[in-house]
Design goal:
148 residues; alpha+beta; 2 domains; 4-stranded antiparallel β-sheet; two-stranded antiparallel sheet; elongated
Length: 148
């Protein structure tokens, strides 16, 4: 009786270790899914909506005549870029158009670009909250990179 009890306890302990190792392995080696558009300030839009957003921005935008030194992107725009990259592994180029939504808020219209430099309008297009801006005018005056 004592030997059977020891065998049962040993078997239960080993089975528990195996189960724990399996669960840890599954969690550790499973890629988390990319953030979904609904969990961020990113939403999928149609080509017509993207066109409307971009035209709304360009109708009121201020012209800047300066050498473009860099760009500022929002976290939501980065999320949209990652969504596009995950949807189409062949993409290596992306474009962000400035847009203005119906409430007057600046947004980015994010889409993939083919090897010839043309917009891929047949694939997903995302609207991301916030304004990507060129430098100038949005520059870091104290950046050692931009000291001339």
């Amino acid at each position: 009786m004592r030997k059977n009890q020891f065998t049962l306890i040993s078997f239960t302990f080993i089975a528990g270790l195996f189960l724990a190792a399996t669960i840890i392995g599954l969690v550790a080696f499973t890629n988390p899914s990319p953030s979904t558009p609904s969990s961020t300030g990113v939403s999928k839009v149609t080509l017509q909506q993207a066109t409307t957003l971009a035209r709304s921005y360009t109708s009121t935008a201020t012209t800047v005549n300066a050498v473009v030194k860099g760009f500022v992107l929002t976290r939501d725009q980065l999320s949209a870029l990652n969504l596009l990259a995950n949807e189409n592994q062949a993409l290596s180029l992306f474009r962000i158009y400035s847009g203005t939504d119906a409430n007057g808020n600046r947004v980015g219209v994010v889409l993939g670009v083919d090897a010839q430099g043309s917009d891929i309008t047949s694939g997903s297009i995302y609207m991301a909250n916030g304004a990507s801006s060129p430098c100038p005018p949005v520059c870091d005056a104290n950046s050692p990179i931009d000291q001339r």
